[in-house]
Each structure stands twice: as structure tokens, then as C-alpha cells.
Design a protein that fits this description.
Blueprint (H helix, E strand, L loop, with lengths): L9 H11 L12 H13 L5 E5 L7 H16 L3 E5 L3 H7 L2 E6 L2 E7 H7 L2 E7 L5 H5 L4 E7 L2 E6 L4 H7 L4 E7 L3 H9 L5
Parallel strand pairs: 1-2
Antiparallel strand pairs: 3-4, 5-7, 5-8, 6-7
Protein name: ABC transporter domain-containing protein
Keywords: ATP-binding, Nucleotide-binding, Transport
Family: Belongs to the ABC transporter superfamily.
């Protein structure tokens, strides 16, 4: 279908091919998977549409080319385009999308903004204490899962209000506290865990 209308700017195709290091003068069948993927991306973007539907857009691309794709997609988004992306790489979804939908067995089971998903997701903290870990106090925090790593180190996974955790920490000497970023892959597993039973 890409031959139904010319690109808005012929120079844009040249610019895209340079950005991706794509070979435009060879038969598609003779190209590697990564190079075929580059050509597909160029075809998708060369008309500068307002709506993109992309299925696993970075499959076959090396990390450098994935970054080129992310820059291109985010630029199109900044110009007002809408991108619908189907991907099993949730890290790339988190990088590019404002909203996310989870599909299980052909049905949309959840759809929300990335911000809402992140806010409702569990937060994970790795805490290292100067003295023994106050396990009894930590275990009484509502909606917290506490894992003892060593006599002075603990991992706390907490959903909801974090103030009870910080109230406990205020009474103890903390050497370090690291908060792990919310990982969409963990949220994906939460939605799909029922399928494993």
C-alpha cells in the first residue's frame, strides 16, 4: 500500500534511510531481518501519518537502532500523531506510551494511563539498617510484603500509602534506602498470573 501515495517529502525518505543506515537499492528478500525491519519502519513513517499502528516495531533491531526508532516515534508523537503499539517489550511501551492496555485471551482486561498504573502498582524498597532489621514493625505495615535479605537488609514491596513505612524508618538508623522504579513487566505478570493456574 505504500506505493499508493508518494511521501510528503522525498527528502524525508532519504533522511530516514540515513538515520537507520538502511539499504534502499536491494531486494527486500535479500536483506537481514533487522534491515527488513528498518525498511518497514521507513515505509510506516515516510508519509508522516497522524495515526500509526505498529506491531513489535523494534523486533530485529539492535539497541542503537531501537534508540533511533524511539526518537522517531516520540518526535511523531510530539507532532500530534497517535501511536498504537503492540509489543511484548514492556520497557519500550513504558518509554513511548501514555496509555496501556492488557489483552488476555483476545479480550481487553485493563486499559489505563501509564501514570495511573504506576501509581497503583506496588513500590519496592531495598533498605539497609545500621542495626538489626526491625522485622516485627515492618511486618505490621498494611499491604506490605517484607523479605529479609540479611540481618541488616530488607526488601519491602508496598502497595498504597507509604507513610507507615516511613514512620517505622524514622525510628531507626537507615544506612541506605533504594526505591526501585515500577516495572511494567511485573504489572503484566499480575494481570496474567491467573492463566498459570
Amino acid at each position: 500500500m505504500s506505493d499508493l501515495q508518494p511521501p510528503k517529502r522525498a527528502s524525508y525518505v532519504t533522511e530516514l534511510s540515513k538515520r537507520f543506515g538502511a539499504v534502499l537499492n536491494q531486494r527486500i528478500g535479500s536483506l537481514s531481518k533487522g534491515n527488513r525491519q528498518k525498511i518497514g519502519i521507513i515505509q510506516a513513517f515516510m508519509h508522516q501519518p497522524k495515526v500509526f499502528i505498529l506491531d513489535e516495531p523494534t523486533a530485529g533491531l539492535d539497541p542503537l537502532m531501537q534508540e533511533v526508532f524511539f526518537e522517531l516515534a516520540l518526535s511523531a508523537k510530539a507532532d500530534g500523531a497517535s501511536l498504537f503499539i503492540s509489543s511484548h517489550n514492556l520497557g519500550e511501551v513504558q518509554k513511548m506510551c501514555d496509555r496501556i492496555g492488557f489483552i488476555r485471551r483476545g479480550k481487553l482486561i485493563s486499559e489505563q494511563t501509564i501514570a495511573d498504573l504506576t501509581a497503583s502498582a506496588s513500590q519496592t524498597f531495598h533498605i539497609h539498617f545500621a542495626q538489626a532489621t526491625p522485622m516485627l514493625e515492618l511486618k505490621h505495615i498494611p499491604r506490605a510484603k517484607v523479605t529479609l535479605n540479611s540481618p541488616h537488609s530488607v526488601t519491602v514491596r508496598l502497595q498504597g500509602d507509604m507513610s507507615p513505612l516511613f514512620a517505622v524508618l524514622a525510628h531507626h538508623k537507615v544506612r541506605s534506602l533504594d526505591r526501585r522504579e515500577v516495572n511494567l513487566e511485573e504489572e503484566f505478570m499480575r494481570f496474567y498470573k491467573d492463566d498459570k493456574k
